[in-house]
Amino acid sequence: MRIAIFHNLPSGGAKRALYGLLKYLRKDGHRIDVFVPSTANEDFLPLKEVANDFKVFQVRNTTIGSVISTFKYVPPLEISFSDLEKTEKDIAEFINKHDYDVIFSEQDQFTMTPFFLKYVKKPVKKPVVYYCQQPPRLREKIMKKLYQNLIKDNLMYKIRNKISKIYVSKIASIDQKNISFSKYTLSNSYFSRESILRSYGLNSFVCYLGVDTEFFKHFNVPEENLVMSVGQCMPEKGHEFILNSVALVDPEIRPKFIIVSNKGDIKWENYLKGLAKKKDVILEILNLVSDDDLLLLYNQAKLVLFAPYLEPFGLVPLEAMACGTPVVAVKEGGMRETVTHDVTGILTDRDEIIFSKEITKLLLNEEKRKELSLNAKKQVNNFWTLNHAGKRLVCHLDRAMSRE
């Protein structure tokens, strides 16, 4: 197949997943051409490494966009919506003029559903598959509640919060309009599929992601008395919940807690550090670590703890499982589909006492950790590899082509 790929993603799990899928597709003999606006993050796992061709379309920066970007409580808009739409239209029209069997679109970090979908079939009709990681979450009550600690005593954040409401409404409107152009939508989990159905009234097909087991794997390094979590250092990633849970572990066996973050809010980092000091937890926050360092940490950790709020899928538990590191996760969102309770990891209610008890049990039971480790590696290799994920995607691309 000749496949055109579009994305405007930031760094993080979605970009890592896309990189892995393209790595598989190219290895499988498909022609992969990638098209991105200049706002897409291509420093983290650059797709030109796995693409046959790679083109960047410049998005014009505007004065008003620069002003908006100073309000960090709203999405980091360095451009105006109209400039972004124009660039994505240019990308679509370029693709329309060339011979592709199918087009695969990822999400947009600013609008969620990209403007790209609006233009990609005009004037030539081509099958388009849109991978919707999740609908916008900015209006969810849990998100507002989680950010209260950042807002309540800070005048600048209060101002940003007021201004952000304008853009939250705008983004929701754009997203709802753009999603109407998607005719074949994929989701990353059944939880996400239900969220898409609830938000858009739109059917989607679950196409599970996978992890690169050639990279994420177990190797013999000494286990250390540390636990870790991976994800942006932001309230919705649940690091505060984990920190409070670790604080309830007996001081005699309490492990060091490491947060590996690709980006975050400095005020939230400082809040967590202050909380850790108050609760006598040794906390280390590592920003933008290399993949090699991440792999080493996965292998050194006794446990990976994962507690984001309503995470749609979450690659972190699978990366940990591939490395043979037991996972303790909150039983919500996509984690219910990737972690099998008491077989490949532990799932708990969102309760710090319960979560803490499960951490303690595993810290004290090396045999149970080994059992979970063996089961986890086996399950990843049987279902969650890049080869499995790539084959699932190819089936959907073939199906989309047959429907046109």
Notes on the protein architecture:
The strands form 2 sheets. Strands 3-2-1-4-5-6-7 form a 7-stranded parallel beta sheet. Strands 10-9-8-11-12-13 form a 6-stranded parallel beta sheet, sandwiched between helices. It has 2 domains: 2-210 and 386-403, Rossmann fold, CATH 3.40.50.2000; 226-383, 3-Layer(aba) Sandwich (Rossmann fold). It is 45% helix and 16% strand. The chain contains 16 helices and 13 strands. It is an alpha/beta fold. The two termini are 15 Å apart. The chain is globular. Helix 1 crosses helix 16 (386-403) and helix 9 (239-247) packs across helix 14 (352-364).
- What helical percentage do the residues reach? 40-55%
Provide the low-confidence segments as ranges: 68-76
Order of helices and strands: EHEEHHEHEHHHEHEEHEHEHEHEHEHHH
**What is the number of helices?**
16
Largest sheet features: 7 strands, parallel
Q: Tell me, what is the CATH class of the largest domain?
A: Alpha Beta
What do the pLDDT scores average to? Answer: 90
Architecture of the largest domain in CATH?
3-Layer(aba) Sandwich
Specify Rg, calculated over alpha carbons: 21 Å
What CATH calls the topology of the largest domain is Rossmann fold
Please give the order of strands in the largest beta sheet: 3-2-1-4-5-6-7
| Total tally of structural domains | 2
Structural class: alpha/beta
What is the beta-strand fraction? 15-25%
Number of strands: 13
- CATH-defined superfamily of the largest domain: Glycogen Phosphorylase B
Shape by Cα distribution: globular
Amino- and carboxy-terminal Cα gap: 15 Å
